[in-house]
Design goal:
Blueprint: H1 2-10, H2 15-25, H3 32-39, H4 43-55, E1 59-64, E2 67-72, H5 75-85, H6 90-102, E3 115-120, H7 121-134, E4 139-143, H8 146-155, H9 159-165, E5 169-175, H10 180-184, E6 192-197, E7 206-210, E8 213-218, E9 223-228, H11 230-246
Parallel strand pairs: 4-5, 5-6
Antiparallel strand pairs: 1-2, 3-9, 4-7, 7-8, 8-9
Helix pairs in contact: 2-4, 3-4, 5-6, 5-7
């Protein structure tokens, strides 16, 4: 874990924040009380540190039996995002990726609970999109709005080429737009197939499905979430594939 600690320190985390992240990474999840008790951090300070880590996209939260639990976001997810932006850390990130790929420290092998992680701000939306590239899936299904296209052009230029380079094929459903033909002409270049539906089917948000995950993004509200659930992912795939058959190419 020394390499991971070094990366977290270079990203600006203090020792207590690093201790909380490492502790959550080695446990399935934990309430604030357990964090405070096991790490010997005063509870008010612990809550402040947890909120700081949530805002940085390093930990998530969920509710069980009316109690808030916190868990570490997969290092492969946030490292992909920081690695995209900070080339100086790439070599160290690769070392940690190799360590993480050898053993999942967060939970027992057979335990794979459904969970949801919330993201906010432009940084959070960027992290959701980078999660697509960090996953092992080979196909992305997406209901795409014009808002997402503008966001990617502004904040992650070259994202489609990066996705294509990762070997992730995209099936995208758009609404009718004046520039649709221009958008579709790049399909072959960026490993994508695009189909369209009428403008009145525009959802105003973006829905992504990849592997056992689904992402919901609202660009105008600068908000999004990732839901990790095989049942929800299966239902999304069936709904998307049904509409795909009727969408125009």
């Amino acid at each position: 874990m020394d390499n991971l600690r070094h990366i977290l320190k270079e990203l600006g985390l203090n020792e207590k924040e690093i201790s909380i992240y490492i502790y959550l990474l080695t446990t399935a999840c934990s309430p604030a009380g357990s964090l405070s008790r096991n790490l010997m951090i005063k509870r008010p300070t612990c809550y402040a540190l947890v909120n700081s880590l949530i805002s940085k996209g390093l930990i998530g939260q969920m509710t069980r039996n009316n109690m808030q639990y916190f868990f570490a976001v997969d290092p492969l997810v946030w490292m992909e995002n920081y690695g995209f932006k900070q080339n100086l850390l790439l070599k160290k990130i690769e070392k940690v990726k190799n360590e993480i790929s050898q053993v999942d420290l967060r939970r027992p092998v057979n335990e794979k609970p459904a969970k949801a992680v919330y993201f906010s701000g432009n940084e959070g939306i960027t992290q959701i999109l980078m999660d697509v590239l960090a996953s092992d899936n080979q196909e992305l299904r997406a209901f795409v709005s014009s808002n997402l296209n503008s966001f990617v052009d502004s904040f992650i230029p070259g994202y489609e080429d990066l996705r294509s380079g990762k070997g992730v094929f995209a099936k995208a459903i758009h609404t009718f737009e004046d520039n649709f033909d221009q958008f579709g002409r790049r399909d072959a270049v960026v490993s994508r197939e695009t189909r369209r539906v009428a403008k009145n089917f525009d959802l105003g948000v973006d829905l992504l499905g990849y592997g056992n995950k689904n992402a919901i993004i609202s660009i105008p509200e600068k908000f999004g979430l990732i839901v990790e659930s095989e049942m929800i992912a299966s239902a999304f795939r069936k709904g998307f594939d049904f509409l795909w058959r009727f969408a125009k190419s």
